[in-house]
Amino acid sequence: MELVHADRRGPIAVIRIDHPPVNALAHPVRTALLAAVVAADTDPSVDAIVIAGEGRHFIAGADIREFDREPLAPLLNDVLLRVEACSTPVVAALHGSVLGGGLELALACHYRVSARNASFGLPEIRLGILPGAGGTQRLPRLIGAAEALKLMLSGDPIGSERAAQLGIIDRSVSDANELMSAALRLATEVAASGARPPRLREREVFGGAPEAAFIDRERAAAARKFPGVKSVDAIIECVRAAVQQGFDAALALSRVRFEECRRSDASRALRHLFFAERDSRPGGRTVRTVGVLGAGTMGSGIAISLATAGFDVALVDSQREALAAGMERVRGTLAAAVEKGKLDATAAAAAAERVRTGDRIDALASADLVIEAVFESLAVKREVFTSLGKLCRPGAVLASNTSTLDMDAIAAASGRASDVVGMHFFSPANIMRLVEIVRGSDTAPDVIATARAVTRRMGKLGVVVGNCFGFVGNRMLYAYGRENQLLLLEGATPAQIDGVLERFGMAMGPNAVGDLAGIDVGHRVRRERKDLPDDPRYYRVADMLFEAGRLGQKTGRGAYLYPQGSRKPLRDPEVESMIAAESARLGIERRIVSDEEILQRCLFALINEGALILEHRFAASPRDIDVIWCNGYGFPRYRGGPMFYADTLGVSVVLEGVRRFERTLGPHNWTPAPLLSELAATGDTFQSWQDRREPAGGSV
User: Fold this and answer.
1) Model confidence at 564, in pLDDT bands (50, 70, 90)?
2) pLDDT computed for residue 534 by the predictor
3) Nearest CA to 146 among 74, 229, 218, 245?
4) Which residues participate in catalysis according to the annotation?
5) Is there a contact between 172 and 164 (Cβ–Cβ < 8 Å)?
6) What is the dihedral of CA 258, 260, 263, 267, to 10 degrees?
7) Where would I find the beta strands (DSSP E) of 110-206?
8) Which long-range CB contacts under 8 A does 542-549 form with residues at least 24 apart?
9) Cα–Cα distance for residue pair 122/143, rounded to 1 Å
10) Predicted local distance difference test score (pLDDT) of residue 697
11) Which of 541, 542, 568 is nearest to 553 (CA)?
12) Do the Cβ atoms of 403 and 525 come closer than 8 Å?
């Protein structure tokens, strides 16, 4: 396949990049583009050059897969220097995505014409890197250092209207079909003028250096949004260099900083997640109308996500007060989204109109998909699915939002188990991206595909998991939480444990999470289980808090105090005394617990459980586990997820820690997963193990 096409429109050379789906600037594309540019620039019969992209986009960036190996010449930086150096004027014809290296190429061109559908951005910070082909140098010279910093540190794209206001584009057209004609007209005009091509490298930075206070604000905002990455400071340093140094020196600095960031663990982790979160597999059954059974916080959140994605929704609850409250949540959340600028008023009104309500289950009879979001009780859910199996039309998909319960038992109650799937949404469902798609023993493949397609249309990440207690996320959470609970009995405090894990990068520590979710929620789940370990210490602190009526933020008391409705946790000496007394009752000698032990026990328990899940094929890959934990449980993205973190740390290091705890704490909780031992013995990583094996496919 020819990746770059070069043809002529009279004296105008037209170079078109054709590397679907997004025209990524892979090494073969760079090579062909450079050759085409040199050929056109050195041809005396060519008066001007137009560079455009085939398909739906100009260029959406680099080929990220290449970042895992040493770069090959020609580097994009060198290609763009040659484009900019052309004595023949070069016009960029821009449409669709003009992102990353695509925008850097556009900036190296002398003129830019844009269709209205174009979006512009330098999102490299999202991968823990910075624009490495001159974006940190050319953009400040075009729009000013302050606006350039905002664009690079946010990682967010802007539309063509805003790009025109900033001065990024010279001309725009409303219809993308007219883009090439407009680019050819501009190329003809500039060629006829005989003017020397304008080069951004020759300009001074527009507006000079931003104020220190502005830089500090932008740095702080970016550090909150993208914690743990080197590129926040690197971008600021390179933009400062654009102001203070010559173009060549500052460009050289940006290349050095790019390579440093590219090789960092944080960037490797973020690139790992970038690929792990991609899913382009086709959908299954047609879904236009979705029924949601249960109008509580979860059900109304699911309804909001479905309605804003364009589905017609039947929200059903037998309790009329709950139904009214649920619909009020739908309207209130949509109104708040409009107020915050996240949704326009027309779209919000249309979404609200798509939600109809009913207090009888019969309202779900014609739905293409029904999502059950009722009380987390196996008996209740089986009763519901018995009714749904009889009521819903043939071919309708029946989904349960259970977070821990046996999907096969739920499916069996329906009498049509092949139509049944788990769709475990995370709370708040209208915000959280993750959905665990739970495959039962008899779930049909097209039902799994349907659940994937619906979650994708909702803008969420659907990860297929196997059927076991807690599936993947919550099963691992119980291993992680088990160590938290034991550490409390052994002498650590809630604040110490949470502080250690939050400094590691977790969004919240386990004790603060328990208070937020509600101590009663976990207690109810444990009561449903028939396989609890015969260990009086198991989740004893959580059960003790429940027995004392300390249910978390909702009651103002849990592991912490929350005075007068505050959400800020405060240390509670009473809780610490309660735990100490319980330790004495259980015969546990309390001691000083080091921060290092806390971190290792919580994380190594998490990783060891993940290895067991992979062995039993409840997860298709370590990547899926990482996606689940980074998107549903607050694991730091810049560490890539628990299994990627194990690879970064070294599987043998993790195994050594697990064996040490097996010796000191006993084998009951600390028997190494066989897969962990296998990988350590061969020197492999979870990633290399996955690359060698057959995809789990239908075995999950």
Assistant:
1) confident
2) 87
3) 218
4) 104, 124
5) yes
6) -60
7) 111-115, 119-121, 158-159, 171-173
8) 542/485, 542/514, 544/578, 544/579, 544/582, 545/519, 545/575, 546/519, 546/520, 548/578
9) 14
10) 34
11) 568
12) yes
Structure tokens at 342: 């996240």
DSSP 240-266: HHHHHS-HHHHHHHHHHHHHHHHTSHH
Query: Over the stretch 151-205, which tens digit does the pLDDT of each residue have?
Result: 999 999 999 999 999 999 999 999 999 999 999 999 999 999 999 999 999 999 9
- From CA 155, how far away is CA 693, in angstroms rounded? 35
C-alpha closest to that of 400 among 366, 440, 354, 356: 440
Kindly state the DSSP code that residue 198 receives in the 8-state scheme: P
> What are the b/e assignments for 460-499, b being 16+ CB within 10 Å?
bbbbbbbbbebbbbbbbbbbbbbbbbbbbbbbbbbbbbbe
Direct distance between the N- and C-terminal alpha carbons of the chain, in angstroms, rounded to an integer? 37
d(CA 615, CA 595): 30
Q: How is residue 534 written in tokens?
A: 């015969």
Residue 502 near residue 484, CB atoms below 8 Å: no
Q: Is 627 exposed, middle or buried, given 0-12, 13-18 or 19+ CB atoms closer than 10 A?
A: buried
- Which of 396, 401, 388, 368 lies closest to 290 in space, CA to CA? 368
Closest CA relative to residue 386, chosen from 369, 372, 367: 372
Rounded Cα–Cα distance for residues 610 and 51 (Å): 48
d(CA 66, CA 13): 30
Smallest CA-to-CA distance from 135 within 119, 114, 155 is with 155
